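Subject: for your reference before the review

Hello V.,

The reviewers asked for a structural picture of the protein, and I figured it would be easier to keep everything in one thread rather than splitting it across files. Below is the amino acid sequence we used in the manuscript, unchanged from the supplementary table.
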Amino acid sequence: MDWFTGAVLYALIWWVVLFAVLPFGVRPDAAPDAASGWRGAPARPRMGRKLLWTTLVATLVWAACVGLIESGWISFRSGFFALQEP
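And here is what came back from the structure prediction:
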């Protein structure tokens, strides 16, 4: 895998992990809006902490993916997942 493919893979994994991490620890505003009942954005979103956790988890998942790809356990060129010639 070249550096560009690795960087694109990391960016895709990072975004997926970000959307998985965003809901953790979110508590809505205690007092809803009187007119609509809408609570709006969280009182303390803690985005810095979420970005740090996203980066750490994405790095671990990316390293596992790169290790699996480089190991040759899964290959689309030969073996079970290879395309069959007509």
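For the response letter, the relevant points are probably these. Residues 47-74 form one domain. Residues 47-71 form the longest helix (25 residues).

Happy to draft the paragraph if you're swamped.

O.
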